[in-house]
Amino acid sequence: MYNLHLATIAIIAANVLVSLRGFNDQNFFERYKFSIGAIKAGQRERMFTSGFLHVDISHLFFNMFTLYFFANVVITWFGPTKFLIIYFISLVAGSLLALFFHKDEPYYSAVGASGAVTGILYAAILLKPDMQLGILFIPIPLPAYVLGIGYLLYSIYGMKSRLGNIGHTAHFGGAIGGYVITLLFRPSLLVTDTLMVLLLALPIVILFVLAKMGKI
Question: Distance (Å, rounded) from C-alpha 167 to C-alpha 94?
Fold first, then answer.
């Protein structure tokens, strides 16, 4: 798992280089971050470029560390080209969902690779749901699908309560992107792992039901 593929190294390098530029150049950071007002004014490239900017070193490290652990699962199943497709579609899906939910908030802004990384995480869980994952403060490892579902349910709570300075919407959008593209690339999972596919879809259904009801 820990032998990084060239595709993963390229993604990490791009995030590090762009983020370092953003740390040292506030004008660069402001120009390319996700901003509802600027995107609606025509700067749609921000929906992509914001995924390579980070607030600080810890934000960058956490995202790249998560990618480091799960990228090889996706690459092993699909190869580097499809891994990159999942990564970038998840990035854009996170931005699209953020745009959808925050379209009436012109001052809403965000940065980070979290949407793309969450897409890779959710793809890896869908492909290998029996993985055992550890988490801080829980003494025993848990099945990957339990943590995946729990994480998205927490994201729904975060979206409802505006919990912390965290782009919960982008995380969720990225997970949807990773989920959908993984099933498009491997539709046999609908037959071989039907229950898992349905379980992992549950938080997505809950989100859109709540949105339809005006609860989010």
Answer: 9
**From CA 182, how far away is CA 194, in angstroms rounded?**
14
Q: How confident is the model at residue 2 (pLDDT cuts 50, 70, 90)?
A: low
Residue keyed to tokens 């890779």? 120
Which of 88-92, 113-117, 202-206 is least confident? 202-206
pLDDT band per the 50, 70, 90 thresholds, residue 43: very high
Sign of CA dihedral 49, 55, 58, 59: negative
Contacts of 100 (CB under 8 A, 6+ apart): none
Residues 6+ apart with CB under 8 A from 193: 126, 129
CA nearest neighbour of 156 among 205, 113, 118, 102: 205
The three-point CA angle 193-199-202 to 5° equals 140
- In tens, the pLDDT along 150-175 reads 878 877 777 777 655 566 788 889 99
Tokens of 196: 């898992």
For the residues 136-157, what does the mean pLDDT come to?
Answer: 76
The DSSP result for 27-87, as a single string, is: HHHHHHSEEHHHHHTT-TTHHHHGGG--SSHHHHHHHHHHHHHHHHHHHHHH-HHHHHHHH
Q: Which helix (H) or strand (E) holds 121?
A: helix 114-127
